[in-house]
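Q: Is it fine to ask for two folds in a single conversation?
A: Yes, each is treated on its own. Send the first.
Q: Here.
A: Result:
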Amino acid sequence: MILPIVAYGDPVLRKKGKEITAEYPKLDTLLENMFDTMYGARGIGLAAPQIGESIRLFIVDATPFEDDEDLTEAEQEYVSTFKKVFINAKILEEEGDEWAFNEGCLSIPEINEDVFRKPKIRMEYFDEQFKKHTDTFEGIVARIIQHEYDHIEGILFTDKLSVLKKRLIKGKLANISKGKIEVNYRMRFPLAKKKR
């Protein structure tokens, strides 16, 4: 089932997510709905806070990058099958020189800006079967994970922009929170006026 994506301005996007256990109610259904929602909005990642659930859970599907000409053949092959669930994730280490990449977010439509992140991360997480993993991720996959990880920490990619960039997009952000934007997927706007 496709769920509405929470828009910028909703307090749930600013909360640090709570850890969950294997007994979390209807986890399979939640994950299925999150994948449906992400694909319905043509996203490559989605965190639980973006559907109104303040828990430490996010999903990633990097396969749309498999044809990206900026990636090496090995990177293209890697992303072509990269689809994962991350539960109670913790970034243990970030390394390398920060690099810029133009990011966007389903909760902040029509805004894309360059964000600097480190190219390599080591993290600990549980998969959908609650099996624990410690893995290292690099390049575009690491970046997608870092973006979604920020969501479960209550951080948005716009927080990482310069003061000037933030000032330039302030009006657009206000319009998003009020629902004054056209999107081709379901959204929930915190400050939208209810139609009578």
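Q: Second one now.
A: Result:
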Amino acid sequence: MLIQYKKDYEKIAMGLLSYLPDFKNIENLREEIELNQNESDFILYLYRNEQDNMVGVLGTQLSNQFIIVRYLSLAPGFREISYEREIINELKHEYPDKRITAVPEYTNLLKTVEEDNGQK
């Protein structure tokens, strides 16, 4: 289940973000959290699995017609394509009127979901 970030989840979000190379530096990590708190078109989601554990973080950016996946980070042990598919499908459900796209590093996420939905 995707849950929109709020201050209560800061430590969890920072921990999950720290798995990404761009956020190994604490200053970059803090700047990213602040960006998602202060800019309305940058939205951070946490992903809660069936066991009620927060195991992923998804960074997005909204525009008029699109929602852009900026990054996705999953905890070790949860880095399976099934989790990635679930997260992207939930994002589609959250924004049915927007087209989902991604920064180049994450376009593979979209291809997998399109193949699942028969949209090759």
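Q: Anything structural to flag on that second result?
A: Two points. The helical segments are 10-17, 26-38, 81-94, 107-116. The longest helix spans residues 81-94.
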